[in-house]
Design a protein that fits this description.
The protein has two domains: 11-60; 62-143, Beta Barrel (OB fold (Dihydrolipoamide Acetyltransferase, E2P)). The protein is built from two helices and five strands, in the order αβαββββ. The protein has helices spanning 15-61, 83-94, and strands spanning 64-71, 99-103, 108-111, 124-132, 135-143. It has a five-stranded mixed barrel with strand order 1-2-3-5-4. Strand 4 (124-132) and strand 5 form a beta hairpin.
């Protein structure tokens, strides 16, 4: 039920003027609430759209990477693919150190499933997967050219 809006108007204007004034004020209040609601809904929609697009762009950017499989101690020191580097990485991983992925820009990422990289220790690889925090979840891995 609508609340009554009382308007005090000089009686000389008469009832028709009072009725028009009442209706004008009522419509103004209702329209302003509707416009505010539409603006809030549009703002929320645009925020959700921006968030989803940025997450999609981040996921697409982290899809395929090229780099080297090294160990957690040496990290980016063994990114030349030489026999000496391969032997050192294999010895360190066999000794209990965790294998890591070193990107082309020398960023070191942990690997979630170590069994997928055992054939590629010390070598240059192409990896398809996703990065969460500083951990690489490998979907596929193959030797790079």
């Amino acid at each position: 039920m609508d609340k009554e809006i009382h308007i005090s108007v000089d009686r000389s204007f008469g009832v028709p003027f009072q009725r028009r004034a009442y209706n004008w004020i009522r419509r103004s209040l209702l329209c302003s609430r509707a416009r505010y609601s539409e603006e809030v809904n549009m703002t929320k929609f645009l925020q959700a759209l921006c968030l989803s697009l940025s997450l999609f762009a981040f996921a697409a950017a982290a899809d395929q990477m090229t780099g080297y499989i090294s160990d957690s101690k040496c990290g980016a020191a063994h990114t030349d693919g030489s026999e000496k580097s391969v032997a050192c990485v294999k010895a360190c991983v066999k000794g209990g150190l965790a294998p890591v992925f070193v990107t082309e820009d020398k960023k070191v990422l942990k690997i979630d499933d170590k069994s997928k990289v055992t054939d590629f220790l010390g070598k240059k690889v192409e990896v398809t997967g996703s990065v969460e925090d500083d951990t690489l979840k490998i979907d596929t891995i193959k030797a790079a050219d």
